[in-house]
Specification:
It contains 17 helices and 15 strands. It is of the alpha+beta class.
C-alpha cells in the first residue's frame, strides 16, 4: 500500500466505531512500576488491611511514603485511589472491595502473591494474561456497556503482534493499529498494517501520522487526543509489569529479545553498533560445587533492578531463584541454564550508573566463585534501561578498598570490560 491507501484503510476501519478514538481502557494516566505496586501490596498484607480493619488516612500516608507516591500531598489517598490502587483493582484484580468504599480494600489471591512471592513480574504476568477487554470482572458494568463490540485479551494479543512485528512496536503503531482491536481474529490485520506502515518512506510515515492525528482531533478534540496519545505509553508501562515485555521509552519490546541495541530504525539499513557478548562455557561451575543447586532460603523480597534482570534471564531460558535483600550471601540471584550455574549481584540506577561498589560479602562471594560470579548493572531503569554484565570482577576490573568496608571501581574502568549480552556456549 502507498500512504494514501493505508490512510484510507485505517479511516474506513475507524468509521466502524462510535468514536474513532475508541480502544482498550487499561489504566489511569500514570506510569505504573512493579516496585510501587509490590510495595503497596506488601504494606496491605503486612498490616492486615482487609482482615479485620479498614484502611485509614494514616495507612494512605504510610503507603505513599513507602512507595514514594504522593508523599508531599495533603491527601495521598486521593492520588493512590485515582491511579495505583485503581489500576490494582481494575483491571489487574490485585485488590478487591467488599463495598463501594475504599476503606474495605483487601488483597486478592494474586495480590497476596505479589506481596509475598519473589518473582513479582511473574505474578503480574498471570494477572495480565487473564484480562478481557471489555468484560467483567476486569471492568465495571458501566464500562462493559460502553464497549460492547470489544471482546479480546489485550496482553496475549500484544505479545502475538510483537512476535509478528520484529519483536517491537512503537507508540504510533500501537495507537493506529493495535489498541482498537476488537477480537483475536483481527490480530493478523494489525500485523499486516504495521508491516505496510513500516514499508513507507520516512517522510510518508510522518505524513500518515499527521493525517491520522488530525482525523482523531477533528472527531474528539485536541485535549482528548493528547490523553489518547499518553495512554499508549501508560499501556506500555502496564504491559511491562509482566515478564514477557519491556518498555523502552516509546517502544514496547519482547523481553526474550531484549538487548541494549534498540530495534533497527524503520527504513534504515545501517547495522546496530557492535556489542560485546559474555560467553559462559559449560560447565561454568567446578564439578561438585554447591552452586549446582541454589542455597536454601526461607523468604524473599526484591527491588526493581533485580526483578528486571530476573525476567530477562527467565525469558532467555534461565531458572532463577531470588536472594534479594538477604544478608550474608553476597549476591541477589542464582541462575541455572543447562550445565551452567551462576550467581548474579545486581546494581541499578534510575539514571546513569557511576562507580561500582561491592560490599565485603559481595567481594567475598566474587572471590569464592570467580567466573561463576557476575555483576549485572542496570542503568536508566526508569525509561530506557541498559544492561551490562561483568564476570569475575576480582580479575576483570580494578576494585579498590574504601574506608567504609566497600570495594569500588570507577565507571571508566568497569565499562571497558562490561558485556551487553549474556550467552552460554554450546546451549
Amino acid at each position: 500500500m502507498n500512504r494514501q491507501e493505508l490512510f484510507t484503510a485505517i479511516k474506513t476501519r475507524l468509521t466502524e466505531f462510535a468514536r474513532p478514538d475508541r480502544g482498550w481502557f487499561l489504566t489511569t494516566r500514570v506510569h505504573l512500576s512493579i516496585e510501587v505496586l509490590s510495595k503497596i501490596a506488601t504494606y496491605i498484607h503486612m498490616v492486615g488491611i482487609g482482615e479485620g480493619r479498614p484502611i485509614t488516612v494514616d495507612d494512605y500516608h504510610a503507603i505513599a511514603a513507602s512507595a514514594a507516591v504522593g508523599k508531599t500531598a495533603d491527601d495521598p489517598g486521593m492520588i493512590l485511589r485515582r491511579h495505583q490502587l485503581l489500576a490494582m483493582k481494575n483491571p489487574l484484580l490485585l485488590l478487591a472491595m467488599d463495598t463501594r468504599q475504599w476503606s474495605s480494600v483487601r488483597l486478592t489471591d494474586l495480590g497476596r502473591q505479589l506481596a509475598t512471592e519473589a518473582d513479582k513480574h511473574g505474578v503480574v504476568e498471570r494477572s495480565l494474561a487473564e484480562i478481557v477487554f471489555c468484560r467483567e470482572p476486569w471492568y465495571t458494568a458501566k464500562r462493559v456497556a460502553e464497549y460492547p463490540e470489544f471482546d479480546i485479551r489485550p496482553y496475549p494479543a500484544v505479545i502475538q503482534i510483537l512476535e509478528g512485528s520484529g519483536s517491537f512496536i512503537d507508540n504510533d503503531e500501537y495507537g493506529a493499529f493495535v489498541y482498537n482491536l476488537r477480537n483475536a481474529a483481527e490480530i493478523p490485520w494489525s500485523i499486516d498494517m504495521i508491516a505496510e506502515y513500516r514499508a513507507l518512506s520516512p517522510d510518508d510515515r510522518v505524513r500518515f501520522m499527521t493525517d491520522y492525528q488530525e482525523l482523531i482531533r477533528n472527531a474528539v478534540g485536541a485535549k482528548t487526543y493528547q490523553n489518547w496519545r499518553d495512554m499508549a505509553l501508560h499501556a506500555f508501562s502496564v504491559f511491562s509489569l509482566g515478564s514477557s515485555c519491556v518498555r523502552e521509552a516509546t517502544q514496547l519490546l519482547l523481553t526474550g529479545n531484549y538487548t541494549n541495541a534498540p530495534p533497527l530504525p524503520i527504513g534504515q539499513a545501517a547495522a546496530h553498533p557492535a556489542q560485546r557478548t559474555l560467553n559462559l562455557v559449560p560447565p561454568g561451575v567446578p564439578t561438585g560445587n554447591s552452586l549446582a543447586v541454589p542455597p536454601p532460603i526461607t523468604e524473599n523480597s526484591g527491588s526493581e533492578g533485580e526483578q528486571f534482570i530476573a525476567k530477562i534471564l527467565q525469558a532467555q531460558g534461565w531458572e532463577v531463584v531470588f536472594y534479594t535483600d538477604k544478608r550474608g550471601y553476597g549476591f541477589d540471584l542464582w541462575a541455572k541454564r543447562g550445565d551452567v550455574s551462576i550467581l548474579i549481584e545486581v546494581k541499578s540506577s534510575m539514571g546513569v550508573f557511576g562507580a561500582l561498589k561491592l560490599t565485603e560479602y559481595e567481594y567475598l562471594a566474587a572471590q569464592t566463585y570467580g567466573q561463576s560470579f557476575i555483576v549485572a548493572i542496570v542503568e536508566q531503569l526508569a525509561d530506557t534501561p541498559r544492561v551490562y554484565y561483568i564476570a569475575d570482577p576480582i580479575q576483570s576490573i580494578t576494585l579498590a578498598a574504601t574506608n567504609v568496608s566497600h570495594y569500588q571501581c570507577t565507571r571508566a574502568n568497569w565499562s571497558g570490560v562490561a558485556a551487553d549480552v549474556l550467552t552460554v556456549q554450546g546451549i
